[in-house]
Structure formats: structure tokens, C-alpha cells
Write a structure and sequence with these properties.
alpha+beta, Neuraminidase, eight-stranded mixed β-sheet, 32 strands, single chain, 10 helices, 34% strand, Rossmann fold
């Protein structure tokens, strides 16, 4: 009997690796300017062939279950937006050549496709008369049949220039606004449509600035994002709001009377505030036992707003769908209309349940997390998986969405109690909480994780003899850290693309300064080797846990050398009787793209835990 069949027979009715690899991905919701329609994308998280395919869907925001598909889904149609004064939808697509350069297309809510200008990113002007876009130089496009003999690192290729085209005269040639020996990284129209603000960088793959204006403490790489303001008369930005005990996660320009909306992470919840021209906020929406993974807001009349949320709830058993709602000057809005039904396959009996979990770390810090489990489980001495999120500036919430790097819900459906701590470094708790990540690897983050395990055991939820640990990226690092702690109790571990040597990572990652900030230093810094303090490779001698390592062979963020080095160290000085198993996935970067690889990863993850736990 094959391991795959054995697993499915032992765990009937669970969410399968095949289903995980074929999950619908709903994203990029955009409201029409009058708030009457929403357009959004539906595809899958992983591709079955050589190229991704995504379809556009449209819904009437006032009519439940009105979502309908308007493009075939045979091509990659993405980044949709509405024209400001018509029902035309603009979007990017590779429909001219699958996997080729994107071009801009347009489609009416009720009409057929028409081809437009070629671009790589775009934005329609507020008055609807013009469209600005960036496009790479034609000379940079290589024939796919030409074999690359050599490659120059950081070569000045793929540089984007900025163009503008008149939508009222489609036969006119677009004007070049910016074309230089530099890359137009991003741009935005001014509210009156008379000017364009753009950002230049030296390279298309610029490592770039790490400190952004929205960092509450600009001098720190890892800091809670907050709202800042720079006026036309001052060169120094000023802090407006947020960051003390929460984090901003999204800013939306409403393009009406200088209004804008801000989404804020507060603990496990998310709130949406709208600001007027005087930068005075009011809350129009907040989550309640659920989570939103996408959002758009429009001002539809004086003091009234229409919003779209991509909402799910593992508390109520609601999978991810598109919802709409309204808010006025006196009340906080509610999502009242469910517009789509993309996840009807996920029946309630198969949905894992989640709830908040609170405890106190040994140093007195109150910490939050999420516990998840099968719907019918009795919460007493359960086999437990500690599933740790990546980032570290991310968080676990009460969502019911399934995606590549979050293994919590998949494992809860396999019959385990899954505990997921929002350890220090996570978002939603303010600046001091996030800043603990700067040079703090393996310190308070691990204190929070270990104390959640201890609390779960103390409450009788977890069987102390049947506990494992898993995670991807930063979660993979914390898995490696956990299994290398002296006298740890883990019966199995799965490390997905995890860091094991912070010094080597700073020297090889595509974001070296960010990794050096986490590790506390870099090999070229004069302070010596402080990064070894938080590097699991230093403690390979303590590893006795059966370990599965999963890694993309082309990973640029956390190169595969991290897994190979850890494997070699364990083989030479570790205590485990079960040799670590390293699985490499060809062609995959840090986030997997190919469906067969994703399916294999989830299959191996489930089998490894099932065998040892």
C-alpha cells in the first residue's frame, strides 16, 4: 500500500494535498467609482502548466450571489481597475502570448474585449482622460530561443520607462515622460490629474531602501508600520497615527475630496478607517471573529461609503468569498451581501475550527495566538502541531483561507490540534512588539512560542508526549531553532525554507540588509559574529527530532545552502537516529508556483507528521 493511500484511508474526509494545490485564489478586488460594481481575480495558487491562468469576475455590489465570470480564464488576466466615468474595466494580460510581456486590455462590464497599449504597470488618471504606464525597453527583450551564454549580476537591463497615452484619441502614439539610465519603480497621479509622482531606482532588481516612511521608528528595519504625512511645504514627514499598539497594513486613495482609507491590524482583528482632507479618521469597518484578505473602499455620497472585503471565518465556518457593505457617518458598516460562491466545495463538516488563545510569556508579556482543530474534536490531550507563521512581520488570524506558506488549517484538518503563536516580531501589537525582531532571533520570539506550548499542556489541550513543530520561511527558522534546543520534546519537525545560519544568509540572500537586521549582524560588519547566537546551525549537536527539510532549488530569499548546511551539521554531530530528509523542488523560488510541487509538499508534510506523531 502506498503512503498516500494509507494516509487518506486513515484520515477520511480531511482536506487533501490535491485540494490544497487546487485551491481557488481570490484577490485584487476593485470597486467602480460609483461603488455599484466590483471586479476581481480568480485563479489558483499554483499553475498546472508553464504559465499562470487567471479569470476576471464582476459582481453587482447590491445583489447577493451576482458574481459572474467575464474573461475565459485561459490566460493570465490580472490587475483590473475601472475607468473613473464609465463601466470599462482595464486590466493586464499575456493573452497575446502566454507567459509573454503583459499588455493592457479593456472590457466593458457587458461587452467584449478590445486591445490597448502595451505596458507592465498602469494607472488611469482621475479624470479618465489619460492612462500612464511603465514599459521595459524593447531592446531588453530577449528571444526565448536564444541561449544565454553568460549573465552579468545586477546588469542594467529590464529598466522601465514612464509613458502616458490619451484615452480620448487611441490612434495617438503614447508620450514618453521619463526614460533614463534608471528604472521607474512606481508612480501615482496627483488628485487633479495634472502631475505624476514617480520613484526612480538604479536597477530593476534594486535591493532598495529598507526604511520606509510608514515605519514608526524609521531608524529600525523592523518596526510597526504607521501613517505619516509629508506636506508640500516641508521636507520632513510627520507621524499622523497608529503604530503604538497596532500596525497599518494598507492605504487606499479614495480620490474624492482628498479622502483615503487605512487598514489597521489590531491583535487578531483588522479595522478600516477613512480620513478626510484634514486627516481626521473615523472607523467604517472592523472584523469580528473573522479576517479580511482583500479590501477596496469608495465614497458614494456625502458621509457614505461602499466597501468590498474578501472575508472568511474559521470561527463561524465561512470560507473565503467576496462580500460588500456600506457605512454612514453614524455607524460602523457590516458586510451584508455575499457576492460570490467560489468555495462551495468546502462543506462545513470538513472545515477546521479556530479560536483566539491568550497567555503570558515568562517575562510578563501578554501574547496572542490562534488554536485550530477538526470540527468534531474533543479538546483534551490531543496530538499537537506547533505551526509557526513566517515574516516575522505577519500574523495568524481567525481566517479560513488556505495558501502555500500557512500550514495551520491544512494540518488542523488532518486531525491535530494546531497552535500558532503571534510571537514577538509579529504585526498587530505595535512598534515595541515588532522591534523585538531586530537582532532578536531565538530570544523573545522563542520564549513566546515555548510558553504557548507550556500553556496548552497546562490547560490539558495538548498531549506532551505527542508534540511536533513545523513552519515555512521565518517559521522554518523557528522550527530549526526549536529542534536544536537542548532537551526539546518535539517528536517530529518540518522545516520549509528555513534559516539556519544568519551570517551566511546575509551574504547570499536577495535582501541582505534585511536579513542582517534580523540576525543582528553580517560577515562584513566589524562587530564579530553576533548572528551566530541566533543561528540553529550552531546547535546541531542537540538535534534528535526526525526532521523533514523542504526547499525550492532556486530560492533567492533563503538559498538552499541553508538547508544543506543544517543537514550536514546534523549528520555529523546530531543525536537523531532518523536521518534528516531534504527534498529539493526544481525551478521553485521562495514561493512555489508549480501545482505538482505544492501537492507533493503537502503530501510529504502530512505523511511525515502522521508517521512520527
Amino acid at each position: 500500500m502506498s503512503p498516500a493511500r494509507e494516509l487518506s484511508e486513515v484520515l477520511p474526509g480531511r482536506i487533501t494535498p490535491v485540494e490544497m494545490a487546487n485551491m481557488p485564489a481570490i484577490h485584487s478586488p476593485k470597486l467602480s467609482w460609483d461603488g455599484k460594481y466590483v471586479v476581481y481575480c480568480v485563479g489558483t495558487n499554483f499553475r498546472a502548466g508553464d504559465h499562470s491562468t487567471v479569470a476576471l469576475w464582476v459582481a453587482d455590489t447590491s445583489v447577493e450571489n451576482s458574481a459572474r465570470q467575464i474573461t475565459s480564464g485561459e490566460k493570465n488576466d490580472y490587475a483590473p481597475s475601472f475607468h473613473p466615468s464609465s463601466r470599462m474595466i482595464y486590466f493586464l494580460s499575456d493573452r497575446q502570448k502566454a507567459g509573454g510581456p503583459a499588455k493592457i486590455y479593456r472590457i466593458s462590464v457587458d461587452a467584449h474585449l478590445e486591445e490597448g497599449q502595451g505596458i507592465s504597470s498602469y494607472e488611469v488618471s482621475p479624470d479618465g482622460n489619460s492612462i500612464a504606464f511603465t514599459a521595459t525597453n524593447n531592446s531588453d527583450t530577449k528571444d526565448s530561443q536564444t541561449k544565454e551564454v553568460f549573465k552579468i549580476w545586477r546588469e542594467k537591463s529590464g529598466l522601465a520607462s514612464l509613458y502616458v497615452a490619451d484615452l480620448r484619441h487611441s490612434d495617438e502614439t503614447p508620450r514618453v515622460l521619463v526614460s533614463a539610465d534608471a528604472h521607474v519603480n512606481s508612480f501615482s497621479w496627483s488628485p487633479d490629474g495634472r502631475a505624476i509622482l514617480y520613484r526612480l531606482s538604479d536597477y530593476a532588481d534594486e535591493e532598495g531602501d529598507i526604511v520606509f516612511l510608514q515605519n514608526t521608528t524609521p531608524s529600525c528595519v523592523f518596526s510597526a508600520q504607521s501613517l505619516w504625512l509629508r506636506t508640500v511645504t516641508t521636507s520632513t514627514p510627520t507621524h499622523v497615527r497608529y503604530g503604538e499598539d497596532d500596525n497599518t497594513i494598507m492605504i487606499l486613495d479614495l480620490r474624492k475630496d482628498s479622502q483615503y482609507a487605512v487598514a489597521i491590524a489590531r491583535g487578531l482583528d483588522t479595522a478600516v478607517d477613512v480620513f478626510d482632507a484634514n486627516h481626521k479618521p473615523r472607523t467604517i469597518y472592523t472584523t469580528q471573529d473573522d479576517h479580511i484578505s482583500g479590501l477596496d473602499v469608495k465614497s458614494v455620497s456625502e458621509g457614505q461609503y461602499r466597501f468590498i472585503v474578501l472575508r472568511s471565518s474559521a470561527v463561524r465556518g465561512e470560507p473565503l468569498e467576496v462580500w460588500s457593505g456600506t457605512a454612514d457617518a453614524n455607524t460602523i458598516g457590516k458586510a451584508t451581501h455575499k457576492l460570490s460562491s467560489h468555495n462551495t466545495w468546502l462543506v462545513r463538516e470538513r472545515m477546521p475550527v479556530s479560536r483566539p488563545f491568550h497567555w503570558t510569556s515568562p517575562d510578563g508579556q501578554d501574547v496572542q495566538g490562534v488554536i485550530s482543530h477538526p470540527r468534531a474534536a474533543g479538546l483534551k490531550a490531543m496530538p499537537t502541531v506547533v505551526a509557526i507563521h513566517g515574516g516575522p512581520t505577519d500574523r495568524d488570524t481567525l481566517d479560513l483561507t488556505f495558501y502555500f506558506s500557512n500550514w495551520r488549517l491544512f494540518l488542523a484538518s488532518q486531525g491535530y490540534l494546531v497552535i500558532s503563536p503571534n510571537y514577538r516580531g509579529s504585526i498587530g501589537r505595535g512598534d515595541a512588539f515588532v522591534m523585538a525582531a531586530n537582532g532578536g532571533m531565538g530570544t523573545t520570539d522563542w520564549m513566546d512560542i515555548q510558553s504557548m506550548i507550556d500553556q496548552s499542556i497546562a490547560e490539558g489541550l495538548s498531549d506532551p508526549s505527542r508534540i511536533s513543530i513545523v513552519g515555512y520561511s521565518q517559521g522554518g527558522f523557528l522550527t530549526a531553532w526549536g529542534v536544536s534546543r537542548p532537551n526539546n520534546i518535539f517528536k517530529a519537525g518540518v522545516d520549509g525554507a528555513g534559516v539556519t545560519d544568519w551570517g551566511m544568509l546575509a551574504a547570499t540572500s536577495d535582501v541582505p540588509d534585511l536579513e542582517a537586521a534580523l540576525g543582528g549582524g553580517a560577515p562584513w560588519a566589524p562587530e564579530g559574529t553576533p548572528y551566530l547566537r541566533g543561528s540553529p546551525i550552531r546547535d546541531c549537536k542537540n538535534v534528535h527530532t526526525p526532521l523533514l527539510l523542504l526547499h525550492g532549488e532556486e530560492d533567492k530569499r533563503v538559498p538552499v545552502t541553508q538547508a544543506i548546511a543544517f543537514l550536514r551539521g546534523i549528520e555529523r554531530v546530531g543525536q537523531t537516529r532518523s536521518k534528516p530528509n531534504l527534498v529539493l523542488y526544481p525551478r521553485e523560488d521562495h514561493v512555489f508556483q508549480e501545482r505538482a510541487h505544492a501537492e507533493d509538499l503537502f503530501q510529504r508534510l502530512a505523511e511525515h507528521l502522521h508517521f512520527f506523531l
